[in-house]
């Protein structure tokens, strides 16, 4: 809008100059020429002389909603509906989603593309350009670092913009419900607070580049088997407390400009025609005024979807399926044109938000080095040191290292499916380790296919690093939690011949560890992106503290998770029945007294920390004394600089019938040896609310606030009484 006032200025300056010159007609000609040069094409197009009439929607001095109204008023029904579904993209390109523009009115085409962990600008391998392959979302979540999530989003946004992409399909942010979920690596966490906090920063980062995020897959799409058919059956309280909060946060605090509804039905109604999810919650309760787009082939009706709140429909199996019928449905009175207008208005608003009606969008240039450095930093921050019993790490005075295993010699940037990226470059673990180790250290490698050969290399080296992993992908879940192939046997064989064995997991989610008793040193790097090898070496050699913490519980086996077992998972005849209720992830393990392999929030540092001095101070908020200020001190008691990730959990009074504790705040701080810092965080009233009788309530009673390094390592605890 400010731009419009600026645009008005040259014209009046020109007229003043013309008057002063008093030399008509030269002055007029010069003035017109100057005006033409100074006023961008878009503003000139508001003039009546413009073919097809004036285009006031390009006039930046008019409020956006009026510009939308003026544009909408000039569109035919056919043109309106054209903006509501994707079609086959033009030959030579191949973004996932393409909505053709309306040249008659100057409405540009809309380009929508994957994905959440790096740009995948074409569905067709032949036209896909490389991009920065960032570590998987679960790795970002393990950082517990909102500032990093913002930088991650900015990186994605810049690459999307450089490639002409307007809407980025991401972040993927479903709750990790079952440990075998095929897309768990694309999601953040089993915890709604952590998911919402990091997704919000990610969204701010992407959208700061004038690229819309499309948060996906709203709302309960936590498993992949039968994702197009199996319903998620869930009670209201569980939905409100576990599955919906990340979306509400992403919409209200993240200001996400678009939302992708998932493939599966929720409580028997497909997400993309689910009035409760779309019209009632998203639009009415949360005030969302952006665009809802369908996942691919997630639309199952025209009337049901358009009336429930689906704005744009996409399906590459049959472009325009259902929505191409809308003009006829309006003409025969089944759907009102007002409904169509409401949907189109949202699409136009999105176009204004990403600056499509501003002339000369400047495309950034991708700085590969800067983006690669961000990929490396994310991988480092997300690396979780699960175990370091023999204090083997960080490596010191090593003469030789054998790097073995299926992911030792090849990089493992990401998982499969729509989130996969063609990386600009890759660094494998052996490359990263050899580069960091330098000339004085002998580095050997083996891909582990022949276990005896790999073991021989490991035996001959001072230290063995075994890099194992899995490769999950969308469209299916993992059959079990085991490492594929003979990797368990490989680990045991290596550990048997070299007591200084480091096992490095490159998995998207937890795996069973039958060899755990034999392995004192264990690191989880997730799918670490294109710079994974460099990041791994930095952590192994102690250049970076392993500062990741588990955003998901690692069960001993899949069956230990309270979400497992038919009809919870696998599905029963009526779909996935979420009868575990609130007992998702660590909530369930705590509630049922189960001991996982590694608990939620766990992750070691190369230094040690002491937590002390917890104080709780109720503070007034709008006259209600229900916010609570939490303060405590973290001290680095070791001899190295390290990263502490203090976590704050709230335990509710018994009457609320909540699981024992819930993450409600966290921080991340780097402390030098001997340094101490007081952390102060405020828990809002909502941290003490639970869903009952159709609304959020605070049960009067004692709330136990616990603070510490993981959900099972909480040295500080105090109660606060709320009435
Ligand atoms: C996936 C989405 C993705 C879309 C477009 C679907 O199969 O579920 O996450 O954004 O394809 O590639």
Explain what this protein looks like in three dimensions.
This protein has 723 residues and is an alpha/beta fold. It folds into 4 domains: 1-38, no CATH class; 45-353, TIM Barrel; 382-547, Glycoside hydrolase family 3 C-terminal domain (Rossmann fold); 609-722, Immunoglobulins (Immunoglobulin-like, Sandwich), CATH 2.60.40.10. It has 20 helices and 27 strands. The protein has a 6-stranded mixed β-sheet with strand order 1-2-3-4-6-9. A 6-stranded mixed β-sheet has the order 10-15-14-13-11-12, with helices on both faces. It is globular. It binds beta-D-glucopyranose. Beta-D-glucopyranose is lined by residues 96, 114, 169, 216, 295-296, 418, 474. Beta-D-glucopyranose binds at residues 96, 114, 169, 216, 295-296, 418, 474.
Secondary-structure map:
Blueprint: H1 2-21, H2 26-38, H3 41-44, H4 64-73, H5 77-82, E1 97-99, E2 110-114, H6 137-142, H7 146-162, E3 167-172, H8 192-207, E4 212-218, E5 232-233, H9 236-243, H10 245-252, E6 258-261, E7 265-266, E8 269-270, H11 276-285, E9 291-294, H12 303-308, H13 326-331, H14 337-353, H15 368-382, E10 384-388, E11 400-404, H16 429-437, E12 442-446, H17 451-460, E13 463-469, H18 487-497, E14 501-506, E15 521-524, H19 532-540, E16 576-577, H20 586-591, E17 609-621, E18 624-636, E19 642-644, E20 647-651, E21 662-666, E22 669-671, E23 676-683, E24 690-692, E25 695-697, E26 701-708, E27 716-722
Parallel strand pairs: 2-3, 3-4, 4-6, 5-16, 6-9, 11-12, 11-13, 13-14, 14-15
Antiparallel strand pairs: 1-2, 7-8, 10-15, 17-18, 18-23, 19-22, 20-21, 20-26, 24-25, 26-27
Helix pairs in contact: 1-2, 4-14, 7-8, 7-15, 8-10, 15-19, 16-19, 17-18
Bound molecules: beta-D-glucopyranose.
Beta-D-glucopyranose (BGC) binds next to loops.
């Amino acid at each position: 809008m400010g731009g419009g006032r600026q645009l008005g200025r040259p014209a009046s300056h020109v007229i003043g100059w013309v008057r002063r010159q008093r030399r008509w007609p030269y002055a007029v000609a010069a003035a017109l020429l100057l005006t033409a040069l100074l006023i961008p094409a878009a503003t000139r197009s508001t003039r009546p002389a413009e073919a097809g009439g004036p285009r006031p929607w390009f006039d930046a001095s008019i409020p956006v909603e009026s510009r939308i109204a003026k544009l909408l008023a000039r569109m035919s029904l056919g043109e309106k509906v054209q903006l509501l579904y994707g079609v086959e993209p033009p030959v030579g390109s191949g973004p996932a989603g393409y909505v053709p523009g309306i040249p008659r009115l100057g409405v540009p085409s809309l380009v929508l593309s994957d994905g959440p962990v790096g740009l995948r600008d074409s569905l067709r391998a032949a036209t896909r350009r490389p991009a920065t392959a960032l570590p998987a979302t679960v790795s970002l979540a393990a950082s517990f670092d909102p500032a990093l999530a913002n930088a991650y989003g900015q990186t994605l946004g810049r690459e999307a913009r450089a490639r002409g992409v307007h809407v980025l399909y991401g972040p993927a942010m479903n709750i990790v419900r079952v440990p075998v979920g095929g897309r768990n690596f694309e999601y953040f966490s089993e915890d709604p607070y952590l998911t919402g906090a990091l997704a919000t920063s990610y969204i701010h980062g992407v959208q700061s580049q004038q690229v819309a995020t499309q948060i996906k897959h709203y709302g309960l799409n936590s498993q992949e088997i039968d994702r197009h058919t199996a319903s998620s059956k869930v009670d209201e309280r569980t939905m409100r407390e576990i599955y919906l909060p990340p979306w509400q946060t992403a919409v209200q605090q993240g200001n996400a400009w678009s939302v992708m509804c998932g493939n599966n039905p929720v409580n028997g109604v497909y997400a993309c025609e689910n009035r409760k999810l779309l019209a009632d919650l998203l639009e009415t309760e949360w005030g969302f005024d952006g665009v809802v787009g369908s996942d691919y082939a997630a639309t199952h009706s025209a009337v049901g979807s358009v009336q429930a709140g689906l704005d744009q429909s996409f399906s590459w199996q049959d472009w325009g399926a259902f929505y191409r019928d809308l003009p006829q449905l309006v003409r025969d009175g089944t759907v009102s044109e007002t409904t169509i207008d409401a949907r189109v208005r949202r699409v136009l608003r999105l176009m204004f938000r990403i600056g499509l009606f501003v002339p000369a969008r400047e495309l950034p240039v991708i700085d590969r080095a800067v983006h690669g450095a961000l990929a490396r930093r994310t991988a480092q921050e997300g690396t979780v040191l699960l175990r370091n019993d023999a204090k083997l790490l960080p490596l010191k005075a090593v003469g030789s290292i054998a790097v073995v295993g299926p992911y030792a010699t090849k990089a493992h940037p990401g998982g499969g499916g729509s989130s996969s990226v063609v990386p600009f470059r890759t660094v494998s673990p052996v490359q990263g380790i050899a580069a960091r180790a330098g000339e004085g250290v002998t580095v050997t490698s083996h891909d582990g296919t022949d276990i005896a050969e790999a073991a021989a290399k490991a035996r001959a080296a001072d230290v063995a690093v075994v890099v194992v992993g899995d490769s999950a992908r969308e469209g299916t879940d993992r059959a079990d939690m085991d490492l594929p192939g003979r990797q368990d046997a490989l680990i045991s064989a290596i550990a048997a011949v070299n007591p200084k064995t480091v096992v490095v997991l490159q998995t998207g989610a937890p795996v069973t560890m039958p060899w755990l008793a034999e392995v004192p040193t264990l690191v989880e790097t997730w799918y670490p992106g294109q710079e994974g090898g460099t990041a791994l070496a930095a952590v192994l050699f102690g250049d970076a503290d392993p500062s990741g913490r588990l955003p998901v519980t690692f069960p001993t086996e899949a069956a230990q998770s309270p979400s497992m077992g038919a009809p919870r998972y696998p599905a029963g005849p009526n779909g996935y029945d979420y009868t575990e209720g609130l007992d998702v992830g660590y909530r369930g393990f705590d509630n049922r007294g189960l001991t996982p392999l590694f608990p939620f929030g766990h992750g070691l540092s190369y230094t040690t920390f002491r937590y002390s001095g917890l104080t709780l101070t109720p503070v007034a908020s709008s006259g209600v004394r229900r916010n609570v200020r939490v303060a405590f001190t973290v001290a680095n008691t070791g001899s190295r600089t390290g990263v502490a990730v203090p976590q704050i959990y709230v335990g509710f009074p018994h009457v609320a019938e909540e699981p024992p504790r819930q993450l409600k705040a966290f921080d991340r701080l780097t402390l030098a040896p001997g340094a101490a810092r007081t952390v102060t965080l405020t828990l809002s009233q909502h941290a003490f609310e639970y869903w009952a009788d159709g609304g959020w309530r605070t049960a009067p009673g004692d709330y136990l606030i616990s603070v510490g390094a993981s959900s099972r390592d909480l040295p500080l605890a105090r109660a606060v009484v709320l009435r």
